[in-house]
Amino acid sequence: MPRPARPGSSRDSSARVSSSRVGFSQVNASRHGLSGISPVRLALCAAFATCLLQVAPVHASQNGRNGFSGNPDINNGATCAVCHAPAAGVPAPQVTLAGPGQIDAGTTAAFTVTLSGGPAQTGGVNISVSDPAGALAPLDGDLGLIMGELAHSAPQAFSGGVLSFDFEWTAPDYNGDFTLYAAGNSSNGQLDLLGDAIGTAALAVTVVNGDPPPPPPPPPPAAAIALETWTTGLDQPVAIAHAGDTRLFLVEQPGRIRLVDAAGNLAPAPFLDIRDRVDNGASELGLLGLAFHPGYSTNGWFFVYYTTRDAGSGQLRSRVSRFSVGASPDAADPASESVLLEFAQPFSNHNAGDLHFGPDGYLYIASGDGGSGGDPQNNAQAGDRLLGKLLRIDVDASGAADCSLVAGPYGIPAGNAFVDGPGGAGCDEIYALGARNPWRFSFDRADGSLWIADVGQGAVEEIDVIPAGAAGGLNLGWRCYEGDQPFNGIGCAAPGSYLFPLHTLSHADGNCSITGGFVYRGSAYPVLQGRYFFSDFCLTSIRTLDGAGPGAEASEVLPAGQISAPAAFGEDVAGELYVASLSDGILYRIAAVPAPGDLDNDGDVDIDDLLALLPNIGEPASGADDPADLDDSGDITRRDALLLIRACSEPRCARG
């Protein structure tokens, strides 16, 4: 169910940055004489599971996932409960964890998780330990090991209203107090995330007769970026957009759009509230996308994507509508809705929902494959259905609707995959085929390339790149392929018929559902220039790709654990990037962490940095984030200059 909204709040300047050495390029650039230095542009760059946070872009996977056991040290204690939507009046199952409360160090003991009650048709579980030391292991084929945790290998059937999972834990060689955590899902067996119920359990285990506990682990390596809290108090943010000015607009899945000003202050009144027409009754339903018309400053038009129920039949549908801003620039008119496009959703998941205007001025729309699992209706490969596609329409024309259930006012771009007119062999709205659940996509504002992050089934997440100006009809491959791996070959063409991913993520590494972002094209952090940002809902580290070429390499720029449930990235009018935590309702601004000596934050310690440092010798450092204070003495000294020369990448630093 939707989380209650929290009061809006502006940024707390005392807690804005989660790492030192952030914000130098804005705060200290003029102090160090860098304002005239030209930035160096660097060519750098899901299946959602059964246990994901409620309003995530998930799929009804039959494989269990790690990270959702209720362990407070993992994903902020998230469980399956915030994904699987309970039905009214369905009680939560009772979950128990049975086993010894004390064992000797280095020994192995058996434990059992039991679920009883709830819908009690099929069930699953995720199990973890408070300390990663020691080892969990399954005792039968019902469980599998994923990144040190246990999860069901497939949904298991209840017997007499009861379901049990057996496992063992080998204690570490040292003494201590540990806790086993388990979250269990009692499902109705429908694979659509509706009508399920979740319970949790924890069991304290004391380890004795071993060595003394080890010292705490060393801190993780420094991140290349930091997250600055920009605003809080959001209710399930799933999309971020700007309207060509300094404001940001945050889409809340229950059905509101919130407004954040240039200082990070959240307006108390929503920009738009259409909760009265949005169906948000399951984890992937709701208000999902937002795009402002390129001419918004004059026509006031913006477009949204949401799920709703047909008033007559009750059929679940995805809808794209146009709205207009009202008399106030900070409030839209809910009565101005003009429905452009509607299509039926056979299941409640895989709705995609992202919207963006391309450099060609057309509106691009991401649609999922219709849900369930494995695309049972083969929607993504069917040219006569809008499901599992990237759609493209001309919102400045009209009279050309083809496969929409509502003949809304839009035209069909000439380069789409099918342009044979209404009633022809294929849906004219289709631009690209073969998508599973392209939860987030974006355009590189520098070269117009289209980056698509498509959520996988149970093994592979993928990032696809379509070059700018590419003709319609490209096929991303689902369900023939999951990422670059064959999935269901029935009716499929030769491999050369498909566009294979630029990059894939494996579920074996802890990924479960990719959250795509943007290529950084801002100016505040030249070191980030050209990098494509992305994350994953389970493995929440933020990563980048250093370009779109065949040899593009991924780098982790922020370790996992710094943000919970990253659901959306966004960029402001200047190209600076943001990321939203769905579970915590927080919008973060992404900032680069300059290396010591990199005064201009261009990713290289060079002669420009030395020339900027020298005039400041003898002055106090501006603070802990001052990259000119290489020895952290609190002052800019000749020693700092010598250290910078040693780190300098150019021989002329030493000569200077």
Automatic annotation (TrEMBL):
Biased composition (Low complexity): 10-21
Region feature (Disordered): 1-22
Domain Cytochrome c, chain residue ranges per copy: 59-185
Single GO molecular function: electron transfer activity
PROSITE patterns in alphabetical order: CYTC, EF_HAND_1
Domain of life according to the entry: Bacteria
Alphabetically ordered keywords of this record: Heme, Iron, Metal-binding
Keyword Iron included in the entry's annotation: yes
PANTHER family, per the entry: ALDOSE SUGAR DEHYDROGENASE YLII, HEDGEHOG-INTERACTING PROTEIN
InterPro entries found in the cross-reference section: 6-blade_b-propeller_TolB-like, Cyt_c-like_dom, Dockerin_1_rpt, Dockerin_dom_sf, EF_Hand_1_Ca_BS, Glc/Sorbosone_DH, Quinoprot_gluc/sorb_DH_b-prop
Protein name in the entry: Cytochrome c domain-containing protein
Pfam families, per the entry: Dockerin_1, GSDH
GO annotation (BP), single: polysaccharide catabolic process
Source species of the chain: Mangrovimicrobium sediminis
